[in-house]
Amino acid sequence: MPEPTPTPADLEARVRARPLPRHVAIIMDGNGRWAEARGLPRVAGHREGAEAVRAVTRAARRLGIEALTLYAFSLQNWDRPADEVEALMLLLVDFLESERAEMMENGIRLHAIGDLARLPPPVRARLDAVMGATAANRGMVLTLALSYGGREELVQAARAAAARGGEIDAAAIEAGLWTRGLPELDLLVRTSGELRISNFLLWQAAYAELLFTPVLWPDFRDAALLQALADFQGRERRFGLTRAQLEARSDRE
Ligand code: FPP
Question: Is 199 in the pocket of ligand 1 (CB under 6 A)?
Answer without folding.
Answer: no
